Amino acid sequence: MPNRASELMWHRAKPAPGRKLNRDIVVSAAIALADREGLDAVSVRRIAADLGVRPMSLYTHIAAKDDLISLMVDEVVGEIVIHEELPDDWRAALRRIARASHAVLAAHSWMLAVSTRPGSLGPNALRHAEQLIAAVAPLRLTPAGAWVVAGIVNDYTLGHALRVAYPAAGSTQERYSSVDPAVFPHLARALRAIAPERDDTTFETGLEAVLDGIERRFAI
């Protein structure tokens, strides 16, 4: 049976009266499944089972899994978009965006795996990109420079969220238990202290260091 859903459209059509299933419900169920079991668990059959409907009924709303993932990503990115006016100060604006991004990525760890997937950007992704570029506007950078600064903040945020979502098994001391001080003297000395777990505190420390570096390198 061919898919009955039309080409992916970003806008939401109003649900038909009396219809229990719509695209928002399908996307929300897919996100909940990915949050519980990872992106690989997401399939039409699994989502249909979670919703208590026939698998073919989902194709009225979603044409293909790639379309579903695109909609999932854009829905979650919507949680990052700042709905109030951004601060005029570029550091405060970037800090606000980075904090929102980090919290959402840590909560939806499967997003880390699809952050670089190809495809057109949805409306929430475009709003997020617009806010990032607007946040660095006070630095009066060239367009290329604005992308560099936005990328620095994004890369740090993604990297730290990855560490939070997938912490290393075992303590630092356990993983480096075979270090020979005679061969690795600096590492052995550092191991006398317990390495901090990645959390909001370490994120904030690193973010301020990143913003300090941007200020020294790019601020007028």
Q: How does this structure look, described?
A:
It is a single chain. The protein folds into 2 domains: 23-76, Arc Repressor Mutant, subunit A (Orthogonal Bundle), CATH 1.10.10.60; 83-218, Tetracycline Repressor, domain 2. The protein is flat and about 65 Å long. The protein is an all-alpha fold and 220 residues long. It has helices spanning 23-37, 44-51, 55-58, 65-77, 90-107, 111-114, 123-135, 143-165, 172-175, 185-190, 200-218. It is built from 11 helices and no strands. Helix 1 crosses helix 4 (65-77) and helix 5 (90-107) packs parallel to helix 8 (143-165).
Notable features of this structure?
single chain, 220 residues, mainly alpha, Arc Repressor Mutant, subunit A, Tetracycline Repressor, domain 2, flat
Q: What does the average pLDDT come to?
A: 86
The percent of residues in helical segments reads 55-70%
End-to-end separation in angstroms reads 61 Å
Low-pLDDT residue spans: 1-6
Shape: flat
Q: What's the CATH C level of the largest domain?
A: Mainly Alpha
Number of alpha- plus pi-helical segments: 11
Number of strands: 0
Write the layout of secondary structure elements.
Elements: H1 23-37, H2 44-51, H3 55-58, H4 65-77, H5 90-107, H6 111-114, H7 123-135, H8 143-165, H9 172-175, H10 185-190, H11 200-218
Helix pairs in contact: 1-2, 1-4, 4-7, 5-8, 5-11, 8-11
